[in-house]
Structures are given as structure tokens and as C-alpha cells.
């Protein structure tokens, strides 16, 4: 998966975007108390990313939960464009997805789009990107995703699972649709042109695999929405349930205004960063604070535009009360940026230490996540002639 | 494989085209005594389709034969778009390919492009086209192609063999190249846009499978040439030998001027036609003869524009001397069309009877032709990380 370049992509430059406006542009719905209460009914409690509206908009989440309640088969789907090592911005939706998986016991289909990242990359070789796909699986393992219920599809190697579905999708999409949806031009390579069929195919794949209509919920950044609009449009004519979505906001990088991005590695915390390096990155980070401690005490800081505060809010402070205290301590000048950063740096370092230990252990059982080790290719299921 | 619609496609309407002109347009080379003598060196004798220049142009055939002589690994590649049952126009290059395989003992890779035919078809379902792929394999078996040396790749089901190569090809082809080469427009579906990567991938596949540079010769109609031009252009940068080609003329249909085509079933002889029906088709066929027997005796016929004569020349008369006698008997009015047709009808019916018996027997061992029953997917060969 990749941040596409559709006609409107404010998130390419901004993480502190007007998410209300994005919802309107994309025609999604804001997450309301209605869906949240429905979710609580099946999960018992609410994840911080729901309580704080980090996941903030959706399409048919209510219908997905109702399908789950009524006993229909349900599945989760998310993914990753494995162009490099994983950073905290990537794992944000995975943390939530793991929580959903734990609470609901449903299978997760996880797509590694090594093909697409190769097509999109200026300089990386296919072999390099394919190797990162395996590195990235280690992060899924370290986050504790259940290998019995987490099925990783590496496009270039597991294409046989998707291609029979992609064939039918491709027939229904013209070049002009692709151009309009993704902003492709005549100088785009034909891999990029074809690729959306594969991202869409995974949304239909569980129905093929299980041989029964399967309701798929996709937790992902809203930048992936163009794919799902096509997936929803085509689903009825291809005989699949419409995939449903829940969209998350993007984790800001440690500088001013942008999302955490591999293009600015000094402002992104990688899961493979040595903890001491990660600490330094946090300590050097931009904040919403005043230029001096004196001014901060006098005027207070602005947590609403502070990537350090956002790190607490989106990942590193589980306790709502403590988060609230931090917010007002900053606002009122009682909390200085140095102290706030030092505490975050320590939490990040602790997280990384544990994550990296689990990550290395996972090398011994990485194959348990690969779909090809668990299921036969779907051609085996299909009746022939 | 399919007759593409590049900018210049006279064969769409005509079988009696100016083949010299086509050679010039495509920048291929006419088959000369030089290549023919070289071929005789390795095959011992010459197939009628070479002696009569049914295979009439090429790209680097001489280099391919020299590679074969010098002991380098060589392979053959051809294919079929399985949109329906096979007719005599389809099997013409397969007959020659079988002969090459017998004489040289090389492996043949045979692509069944069920994906592309589905993308191209207005009305047929994927399942229907996929089923024809298996029907068409029966014809390969009936023609006697050696299952140990004939490896059929059905695109939709054997995609895993091709996709890792197709990924690298797709990155090097822009949309504008595709439009210029194949005449695609913005209303073309994105399956068609992507498909050429798969037809090209098979030309490189033997090198991946055997793990050594493999020289591939493609016997096929000249209408497939646009694919091979791209395949040859890209080969050096992707590290594969340039595929070589030998082009054949198209078998005319039994009416005036067109190639044998599924769009005019009454003028095409299918391998599945009951022999009596095939006889009737021949007897109703257009000829180069005069309107009446009297005029024929007086003025003679014109075998050069006669599809009945072409059937003898291209498939059904092995003996050059007898073919020559038939030609002049027609020209001088000694042979009447009814007699000539009746003899052909008998030969066609005999051929079909035997072919159909072998065809039905082949149902028991069809899987011996499938590449997936013989080789593991190439990802198993590739070193990873």
C-alpha cells in the first residue's frame, strides 16, 4: 500500500490537516457515538485510538459490526508497501488492528505490496523491496498479531491467490477511470496502472478462500480510500460483499507539520532504530512549545500542533486522565518541552527495546504468517470445466 | 495470444496480403537460403512449411541455430488465446513447432492466454475461456507434441511462474509505449494494458527456470510481432537473451480473401468438427476457379488466390511434386474445382478422424502437459535475502 497521488492529496504535505474536510471530499462518514457504542458492544472496551478519534471516519463500520453480531463471517484487511523498515507511523493502524483481532477473533489478511513499491520506486531493486517485506513481517510478529489468524500475502510471491480475482476486476476498469482516480499519466509505467486490481482483490479474497460471503473491514489511513471506492463500486457486479473501512489519521513526524515519512528519516522513529538513536530523535524533535522556558511558563505551549504530544495521544499514553493532565500542564506552562520530550524518549526507548527482542525471536517462526504455508492456492478450490 | 490491433494490421481483413510489405513494415528479415541451409544442417531435412516459405520471415533465426549448434541451451515458445475450439489456422504453426521439437529435442513453452482472451472478449466468461484452454491442450496432444518436453502455462492458473518476471518488464513500459505499440486508448481495460508483460515474460522464463541463459525461438504468426519487438528491446537491460522469431503466413478461410477465423465459423475447419460437417464446409468453399466447368477447362483456374489450393500447400500435400502437378493442372484447366475439393474434403476428414481419436485419449494424460505438474514455481529457485 502506498499514499497514492489522487487529484486531492493534502496529506502528502500535511499531517495536521483538516480531517473534517477530507471526510467530505471522500464522501466517508465521521465516526459517531452510534458506531462507537456498537463497537463497545462487541469488544467490551474501547481502544484509545477509538476513544480519541484517531480512527475517525468510516464507511459502513456499523454494518460490519452488525454482520459480526449476526454471526456472518467477517475478516480484517490491511497492508504495507515494504519500501523500507517500518516506522511508528506504519504500525499505528496495525496496533489497532491487532486489538480488533484479539477482541473479535477474526482473521486478518495483510498485503505486502512489494510489486507496487518496486514500480513506484526510483532507485530500489525488486530484490531489496522483497527482502523488506520479510523484515516488515517481523514487526507484525513483535506487535503480537496471532500467526494462526494473520495471513500475509506478498504480492510478487503469492500472486496466484489474487490473480484469478484481479483478472475479473481488471476487465471492469478502464484506463480513463484509473487516470481520474489515481492521477496516472501516459508516462506512468503499466505496473502502476495494473496494481490497483491487486489491492482491490484482497478485499474480495476472503470470500473466495472461505467459499462464503465474507464481510471485510479495512483499518487504514484515509489516503488509501481511492482503492476502496472502486472496490465498493465493483463488488456487487462481481458477487462480493462491499468492503467496509475505518480510517485513521496519520502520525506526524518529529518536525513541523508533515506526516512521519521515510523521506525524512531523521524525523521518523523506525522499529529498528537503536533505542539511543530514537531518544536523540525525540529530543531533537519540533514541539508546540515557546522558544524559551521563560515564555513557556508565561504563555504555555500548544499541544494541538505538537508532534511530541501527538505521539503520547496516538500511541504512548494509554491513560486518558494522564493524557488530559499532560495537555493542560502544557497549555498552562507547567510542563516544559524538555521534560515532556525526555519522558516520551524513555517510553519510546522502552517500547523499542521490547519490540526488537520480539522482532528477532520472530525470525524463527516468520513462515507461520505466510499465507502460502497455510492455504492452498484458490485454483485448488475452484471447480474446473 | 491474439491478433493485436497495432497501427498497421492488414491481416485483420486479408490473408492474401503482401507479405513482403509486412516484412518491411515490421523490420523483420525474409527467410533466405542461408537460414534454410543452416536449418537443414541441424534438422537433416526441411519441413514443407519451410520449403514452401509458409514460414517466410524471421529475426535472428540464424543466431538461434548457431547457438543450438554450439551447445547453448535453446527452447521454443508459442501459444494460443483459448477463446474457443482450435481450427486449422491455429494448428498450422503448432505442426511446424512439433517438427522442430522432434528434430532438435528442445523444450517448448506453450502459453494459454486465458486472461487476455477474457479481457478481450465481449461476451465469454472467464470460466468458459479457461475451460477452452484445457480443450486446446488436447489438440497439442493429438498433434503428438511430447508431454515431457512441452510445458503449458495457463496464465490465470500458472501466473506465479511469470509474475516475478512480469513485474520487472512492467516497470520498463510506459502507458504511451503501450498505446503506440498496440493502439490502446483510454477506454481500454487495464487488463489489456498489463497483458503484454505476460506474453513477453514467457520469452524470458526459460532462462529463469533453467538458471542459465536460454535462447528462445518463437514460431508464430507475424501479427504477434509487436510483442517481440518490445521483448527484444528490453532483454539486454533485464539480463535475458533476445528472443528470436520465425513468422508464418496465415491460413486462409474457406471464403474469399480472409484468414481462417472464429468470427466466420462456416469458413473455418475446427478440430472438433464432425468429419462430415468439415467435408461439407470444404465442398461449399470459395475457389480460384471459373464460374463453370466449361470456362474452367478453357481458361484454367487461379490457385494463387484459392483457399482450397492453399490448404493443400500449407498442410495437406506433403509431396512437392504432387503439389506442383496440382497447381499446373488447375492453371491449365485439367483439374476441376469439384474434384479438387472432394479430394481435399477426404483428406481433411481423414485427418480429423485420427486427430479426434487421439484428442479424446489425451484427456487421460492432459496434466502431463501442465507446467505446474512438472516444475515448482520459480520463487523456489530464487535465493532470498
From TrEMBL, chains A, B:
Family matches, as NCBIfam families: PRK12285.1-4, trpS
Highest taxon of source: Archaea
Provide a Gene Ontology MF annotation, just one.
tryptophan-tRNA ligase activity
**Catalytic activity, EC:** 6.1.1.2
**Location within or outside the cell:** Cytoplasm
Function in brief = Catalyzes the attachment of tryptophan to tRNA(Trp).
Q: Does the keyword ATP-binding apply?
A: yes
List cellular component terms (GO). cytoplasm
What this protein catalyses is: tRNA(Trp) + L-tryptophan + ATP = L-tryptophyl-tRNA(Trp) + AMP + diphosphate + H(+)
Q: Which UniProt keywords apply?
A: Aminoacyl-tRNA synthetase, ATP-binding, Coiled coil, Cytoplasm, Ligase, Nucleotide-binding, Protein biosynthesis
Q: Which residues form the signal peptide?
A: none
Family, per entry: Belongs to the class-I aminoacyl-tRNA synthetase family.
The primary location reported for this protein is: cytoplasm
Write out the residue ranges of the motif 'KMSKS' region: 259-263
- Coiled coil ranges (UniProt) are 341-372
Which gene underlies this protein?
trpS
Q: What class of enzyme is it?
A: ligase
Any idea what this protein is called? Tryptophan--tRNA ligase
Q: Name one Pfam family in it.
A: tRNA-synt_1b
Concerning PANTHER family, the annotation shows: TRYPTOPHAN--TRNA LIGASE, CYTOPLASMIC, TRYPTOPHANYL-TRNA SYNTHETASE
Please give the biological process terms from Gene Ontology that the record holds: tryptophanyl-tRNA aminoacylation
Respond yes or no to whether keyword Ligase is given for this record: yes
